[in-house]
Write a structure and sequence with these properties.
The complex is a heterodimer of chains A (611) and B (85). Chain A is an alpha+beta fold and 611 residues long. Chain A is built from 24 helices and 17 strands. Classes of the chains: A alpha+beta (611), B alpha+beta (85).
Chain lengths: 611, 85
Amino acid sequence: MSNTAVINLSSGRVEVSPTPSNLIRAFLGGRGMNMYYLRKYLRAAGDPQRLDPFDPANPLIFGSGLLTGTIAPNAARFNVSAKSPESLGLGDANCGGFFAAAMRKNKFDRLIILGKAEKPSYLLIEDGHIEIRSAKELWGLNSPQTQEALKSAHGSGTVSAVISQAGENKVRMASVMTGLKNTAGRGGMGAVMGSKNLKAIAARGGEQIAVADKAALSATRKAQTKYLQDSKVIQILGTLGTPFLYEVSNRLGAIRTRNSQENSFEDTLVASEIEKFSDKMLACTSCVVHCRHHNTLGGEGPEYSTIGLLGANIGVAPTDQVITLNNLVNDLGLDASSTGTVIAWAMELYQRGIIGDGVTDGKLEWGDYERVVDLINDIANRRGFGNVLAESSQAKKIFPPEAADYLIAVKDLPQSDPHDVRYIKSFALGIAVASRGADHLRNRPTLDILKLPDDVRMKIFGVPTSSDPTSYEGKAGMVAWHDDIYAVADSLGICKFITHGFNSPKLLGYDHFVELIQSVEGATFTEDELRQCGKRVIDIERQINLEIGRTRADDTLPKRYFDDPMPARATKGHHIDREKFQTMLDEYYEARGWNNEGHLSKERLAELDAI
Amino acid sequence: MRIFLHLGEPFWRAAGKREVEITLNDGETISDALASLAKTYPSLAKDLDGKEAKPMLFVDDEEALPEKVLSEGAKVHVVWPVSGG
């Protein structure tokens, strides 16, 4: 049995109750159950649309996946959810590492944090109990320092999720960190944590997570591990990590460069160059991939997203400089994707004369590494122009009105990954409709690039789709299919890198998930029931966004993706056609069972309300 | 005719170099070039067989199909198709 704890930092009260079995049946756990509680507490706070994300009533929810912490392959993940101070919409960030397993060993699968501590505090989870402690000595420390201090105080086995200076200063793209690089990065969850005066959650002790059938789980893990490790993609990720993706995007002409004014960059950031700075590959709990570099410059990573967004996107080419920027944003607790996107946005505004030296505190030019280092430090500490960029996309309220045209964001969330989506139309639809904003990890149909045969695509997606990545035909159904399976993976706590549809059709699908749930929980789900859980997650997220005030008009793309053709390489000339995009959006709503405005039916809403 | 194969990840590792020069007859295609490559470096054959994913192919800056007939001096890029993050 696992528990949900509701912790009110204002009153100091901690209430613990068993996680309801009907919620497990409906949402599994992780992201799905977080969304159930996020909707519940946002509505309880009054008007979800008007609620300031820094209001103590904004719930901050840490939820582990249903399989997290067990030996199920790559079951390390947890989600952190709240109303986002960055997008002012649905906020949700997914993270790996070892923290969620430590939570679960203490019999907590979910922490719902309400209120605001009077003084800097942290939560200590130890042997099944939760205590609120003073963080006076931790405030002001960066992420690695905070985690080390907690280990010194509570023992080397202590695992923690922390904020750094950025979170303390309520930087709107502040992340929650665990380990050197594992990051719940998206949407400013670290800033919400900072607004609650909550510096860290530390977990230690506890006991082995009980599973229904240990022998069956062991056998399933063994078989699934073999299946996964036969995949070439898994093998490559295990040796090169995600930097492997840079070369493909760059060769295609789809690497976001200088704020997407260009679409190709230097070869200094390919995996074989990154590899020169790597001394070993690391893994999260129960991982069979080992995709994370430990770098020789004092950190972990970088990932493809960081290479692209703190490299090509801001014009920084030297490999060591990009890795140093990666380490810096991780130490300071900043989301690399948003940081790289927002700095690139400011650089283009400066290039075009929309903002000048008086605003930027001096020159702000592409590839100026020293300036970027200073700026990142200033963002985290809200100093000078850094204080403006600390507002992330909300800085558009500070800049001249035309500045918004150059921001690469959807629903005010800067795009997560470095892939320029003007070429592959399903990718464009995916980031337009993703519930938390411009993000590839909600629904990216990565298989679209494989140009699979018709019969294979039909078998996977169950609807007719075009094999041409540049076609708009059938892409809505493809995105909807990925919506569902990624929501299920996030709710189980499974990493995308082993999830069917993410980079390869030879990874774990619903059939494999059914086996894992059976052996861990002793609960029988059919494959269709699992997919229905995914659909439920997507629907409740849609409803949260509607209640926050989002409309069909928010399911769109950055202006540049419509209006500016890609300038070079194989993607030259491609852009998103506005009319065809709207047709694709109509088809997507239909595939999801929503009306033409993207609303759930009354019957469906009643079903969700009844849970 | 001389053809220059530029090998991306993970293909170049089997060859030990990024660029491999091969000789083809007039009228031969990218498929022929890849077959020649696999003959020289047998460990590449499995990665090139397309069972998990067919390599993405580019001739200079244009995406190309395996059937494309090559011309003297063509530079063919071979990369693994991947686009997650």
